[in-house]
Amino acid sequence: MTGINSIQGGEAFLSLLKNEGVTHIFGNPGTTELPVMDALSKQSDLPYVLGLQESIVIGMADGFSRASGQLVACNVHVAPGLGNAMGSIYNAAFTNTPMIITAGQQEQGHGLTEPVLYAPLVPIAAPLVKWAIEITRLEDMPRIIRRAAKVAMTPPMGPVFLSLPGDVLSDHAAINLGAQSRVDSKVQPSNVAIAGLAKRIIEAKNPAIISGNEVVISNALDAVSKLAKQIGAAAYQQTIAYGSHFLSRSPTYMGALSRSQKEIKKTLEPYDLLIFLGSTVLQTSVASEVDPMPEGANVVQIGLDDWELAKNYSSDIAIRADVKETVKGLIPEIESHGGVEFLRLAQTRVTELEKANWESKNLKARRAALSKSSALPIEPDWLMLSIVDTLEEGGIIVNESLTSSRALPDLLPYVDRYSFHGNASGGIGWGLPAAVGVKLAHPDRPVTCLSGDGSAMYSIQALWTAAHLNLPITFVITNNRSYRILKQRLLGFHKNERYIGMDFDNPKIDFSGIARSLGVAAETISNPDEVRPALNAASQRSGPTLIDVIVESNVKAMSK
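Above: the chain's sequence. Below: its structure in token form.
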């Protein structure tokens, strides 16, 4: 793409995106995007995925990128559209999702008159993206889009924003479209750094690994599992566990860390060395007087996000490098210098860890869930077990069922980087549209989406896109008729059972009716005997299915 050609702005925009590896545009168009829509009508190799609200557009794109690892493009319309999208952009920034977000802007001369729908777009987007700019000349479009793609895909990856005035998109010019550039971040630490890190690990009496999102991004799951077994380290998923950050059936995997500062501290106190691999360091949500980091803990960090390195806690060793490349260099170094005694000690640790690892927790969680199989209303832990047990081979779970899915981490095995995708930032409404994106990224793998009823109402329009594209996704609504997480915290933190603004059962929401109106097969279930047959039937349909499951709503019952 180096030749100089006379080309219309909308056509140039699409050509540049395709050359940067974009395979889908997720969008909700408006008048200022019409030159792009005109150009789309003249080609067939770049599908346009329509979302019925801007936050849903970003959510679908986010799911697609997280499930594929690809750069993705999404379009919203002028200032109100960008405003609608901001919560979902926050989610994408939180998970370092590489995406080019564009918004059509009023023609530049017209914008000077401040017409309806006008506002400067760059200042709106800038706080949540890696880079934001307005394209003011067609001649500058290639350089800007090339730079935007490079910035989005360079670790720490993340969204970028481009404002596209209508006159630029409608303009014609003879321009050089340029070529794609990527920054190679697959760097290994120096030999000196590897040797120092290996020595520190060998000297540790009881090390632990905390694995995070960069392990997934760098395709390091197998390598990190091998390292954990080699050194006999207990392995935990980072506190905000929103992906398959460790292989569940590895003998040293202990599960996900809690978000509770007190519980984190208790869990990590036995270890004298904490090795954070591409992970945030004990990130939590709700304030606490307890600091989660055990006193005197020694910390090692490896990752590509400068901001996270030694951010809140001092690190004995902090290495800015790719996780996979670092571990690849570390394993032979430890093997060479660990000696027979270290290898024997590591194996002893592995044997001890197997007594309480994820496999052990899985058996206990299954037994506990099975004991609730006949409970009425339906007990969420048993529902999670039923979903896992009926999941087809290669199945992917997209989860935004906040309180009802508490048992899921101990029931669902992470077998590869795609097994699980969860809400990360707390910005709800992500799950339904994300599942659409995940399914588009993996058309040959079964996808099941779990959503709380409160979360679902933020983005229920995503069901239409699933129906429009005839995507065989199973959507499960865990319906407790409330924002139960708020009730739990009001009761737990304030001992208050007057739940104001937290119930929506008067009138009750007919999720099945809503789904059917959007073209989705649906049913409501309140009897546990109906759950597994409904899940099995959904898996056989050629299009989407919604199952509205009425679950236990009593806050005190769910706290047991």
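DSSP finds 23 helices and 20 strands in the chain.
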